[in-house]
Amino acid sequence: MVSLIRPLLILLICFSILELDSLQANAQTKNVPLEQDNFGKNLRLSILVISYEQIWSSTELGIALIKKLQDREEKLKVEADEVENYFIAEERRLTLERENLKPEQFLEMSNDFDRRTELERLNQRQKEKAIKQEFNRWRRKFHNKYMIPIIEKFMLGYGASIVIDIESQALKSVIFDSRINITDKVISEMNDSYSNIEELIAEITS
User: Fold this and answer.
1) Which pLDDT does position 167 carry in this prediction?
2) What average pLDDT does the segment 2-8 reach?
């Protein structure tokens, strides 16, 4: 599937660049400035590209969400370390008491210890899974509610019909003109549009 998509993308990108060059030439001939609208360029491109990961990791909103995740992960790690230290201490006590216990008593206590440690490991894995699921929900909301509307504004301004993520597998080996990459513009626009970070974080993570 990727092998079929890549040639099409290359063709679309080449078409966009050729159209861009044509528009620039016409603008120079007619002495018409290219920068006339709010987005800095009055161009008509059929395709634009972005780096979603760069937008996610470089916008103030994305950075704040990543920090929120890291805080939760750190809190879970502290909790897990405390539980682990508790069980290590209990295991040592059980080993010391073994001499004074009957074999069946020690076996019963040992099995109970193993059961509780396994339950705690399962509990920790479930908490880790829940955090990852929650984080994925945050990313979807960031993408759908906050990033897409900004990208749509640029699509309207540039007259673009397609925006492609350059991190996608289909574009890994495609070389494109940097003029159709609007990643930095999207980051800047999102930072300007979403300044109330604390309120947005509360809404996204609620």
Assistant:
1) 83
2) 49
CB distance 162 to 8 below 8 Å: no
Q: Is 180 exposed, middle or buried (0-12, 13-18, 19+ CB in 10 A)?
A: buried
pTM of the model: 0.73
Nearest to 180 by CA among 32, 59, 20: 20
Q: Residue 142, exposed/middle/buried by CB under 10 A (0-12, 13-18, 19+)?
A: buried
What is the per-residue pLDDT across 94-126, written as a single tens digit (0 to 9) for each? 988 888 888 898 899 999 999 999 999 999 999
HEC readout, 75-130 = HHHHHHHHHHHHHHHHHHHHHHHHHHCCHHHHHHHHHHHHHHHHHHHHHHHHHHHH
Paired tokens of 100: 């004074």
Q: Which residue has the higher pLDDT, 169 or 96?
A: 96
Other CB atoms within 10 A of residue 121 CB: 14
CA distance 68 to 205: 9
